[in-house]
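Hi everyone,

Forwarding the result from last night's run.
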Amino acid sequence: MTVRMPIGGRVSVRSRALAAVLRRTLRPLIERAPITADSVRRVRSITGELGPLLGPAPRGTRVHRVPEIRADLVRTGRGARRVILYAHGGGFVLGSSKLFRAQVARLSSLSGAPVLSVDYRTVPEHRMQDGVEDCLDAYRWLLERGYSGDDVVLAGDSAGANLAFAVALRARERGLPRPAAIAATSPWLDLAGSGPSYEANRLLDPYLPARAAAEVARMCALDAELTDPLLSPRYAALHGLPPVLIQVGSIDLLRSDGEVMAHRLGKAGVPCELQVWNGQMHAFTLLAGVLPEARAALRELGAFAARCTDRPG
């Protein structure tokens, strides 16, 4: 396991200013809001139109809707023979390919690859495992169109990073080709919230309150144990997985999910690079249109995807 910390050096003025604003505005709202099926639906109706606030997509971005798998294929150029399968974050209850379009378009530009962004089914209308199957169907769709497993990088942020690991684990169990790599940003891999950062960063993360994470986890789990490997890949057998990049912020509430997973991957013999980005909060790469650290992290992710899929000829 390779560990790079801290990355990013001094925290940018923009990053400090944004964190201060979020601590006074968005975080108190999330902390006080009840987490119910109805409240999730109301928030979803609002956040679905916030994509422009995350910044514009790069010039020349092309989007092709793939209705049979409820996904967008996003391109910013011709690119190489590789593709990224992206699962968005949102705690398994929020998010869409439209909301994350600027994020995946930047990733396409930086990696030189198209990005297949999946609109997987979300809780509470569906089960977590329905979302996993949607992403696995998207992986099969790529294989059926001539990509090999060595061409495909599974990527995601937060809940989407959980799904990226889940797809790799299901592919191993069902005899599908192994993907080339997994790239996980601020991964939510332990719905039980057992890591030390859930306490150490409880008041530091300006975006994600521990109470909200715990209540959403219970909504997702239904009657299952939160430590069930089908919900929390941190507890799964990890042998045979492809190389992994994990990016977390130093003040991310879920920082320890990434750190514990990196340690377990190393023990399982899986190549893993862990990056801890100085002063960054949960899911900070979504703010690549605003924060220099987020842009740098996306460049790292794009370069990792390219390295893992470059083959002679």
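The mean pLDDT is 94.

Cheers,
N.
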